[in-house]
């Protein structure tokens, strides 16, 4: 975990080509942040922990990321740079169900859901984390709009259907159960959420007046 001349001269995260040392450093730091969130939660996450588990010296972490908030925000930024694409099952019904099931897969299992749940919890304690979480989900929902755009083109949804509102409506009841009422979610709940949104779409409820 020794600082090198390259570390001292390194630009901000993400400013080098994807295959360069900066990208590898960001990935190692991101993995350490996720591990720390899963094991200890946001309040107990420290720069020292990330340094120990990433192999990046803590002085480098402070210089590049500034704080735990900076580490958390960049981990979310890096996650948002992936190649994830929404499902394309050939029908609006199938796509909405698949989107709902992705929420269950990401958050439903306590082991796999620990890190993303901690990210959400951190947003209530850190303005910078909240901003990063907002940007992450704004991008995710923007990509998901293709599901509705394709449905309109196939005649499964009325022209003018608000794509952004539709894709948010699918996950909204699931997030309510996860983070507000603290109820479990499963495949049946996911199917119910998707079916309710599908019925509303077909009724024209998502076409602005």
TrEMBL record:
DNA-binding region location: 46-65
Region spans: Disordered: 1-24
InterPro entries: Homeodomain-like_sf (IPR009057), HTH-type_TetR-like_transc_reg (IPR050109), HTH_TetR (IPR001647), Tet_transcr_reg_TetR-rel_C_sf (IPR036271), TetR_C (IPR011075)
Top-rank lineage group of the source organism: Bacteria
DNA-binding listed as a keyword: yes
Domain HTH tetR-type intervals: 23-83
The entry's keywords: DNA-binding, Transcription, Transcription regulation
Keyword Metal-binding: no
PANTHER family: HTH-TYPE TRANSCRIPTIONAL REGULATOR RUTR, TETR-FAMILY TRANSCRIPTIONAL REGULATOR
Protein's recorded name: TetR/AcrR family transcriptional regulator
UniProt source species: Streptomyces zaomyceticus
Organism placement in taxonomy: Bacteria, Bacillati, Actinomycetota, Actinomycetes, Kitasatosporales
């Amino acid at each position: 975990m020794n600082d090198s001349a390259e570390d001292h001269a390194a630009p901000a995260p993400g400013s080098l080509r994807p295959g360069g040392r900066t990208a590898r450093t960001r990935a190692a730091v991101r993995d350490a942040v996720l591990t720390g969130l899963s094991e200890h939660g946001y309040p107990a996450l420290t720069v020292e922990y990330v340094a120990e588990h990433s192999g990046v010296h803590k002085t480098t972490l402070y210089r590049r990321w500034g704080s735990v908030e900076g580490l958390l925000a960049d981990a979310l930024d890096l996650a948002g740079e992936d190649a994830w694409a929404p499902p394309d099952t050939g029908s609006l019904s199938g796509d909405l169900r698949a989107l709902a099931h992705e929420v269950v897969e990401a958050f439903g299992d306590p082991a796999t859901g620990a890190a993303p749940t901690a990210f959400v919890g951190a947003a209530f304690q850190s303005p910078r984390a909240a901003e990063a979480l907002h940007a992450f989900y704004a991008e995710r929902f923007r990509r998901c709009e293709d599901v509705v755009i394709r449905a309109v083109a196939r005649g499964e949804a009325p022209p003018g259907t608000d794509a952004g509102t539709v894709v948010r409506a699918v996950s909204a009841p699931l997030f309510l159960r996860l983070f507000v009422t603290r109820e479990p979610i499963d495949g049946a709940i996911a199917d119910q959420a998707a079916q309710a949104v599908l019925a509303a779409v077909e009724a024209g409820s998502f076409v602005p007046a």
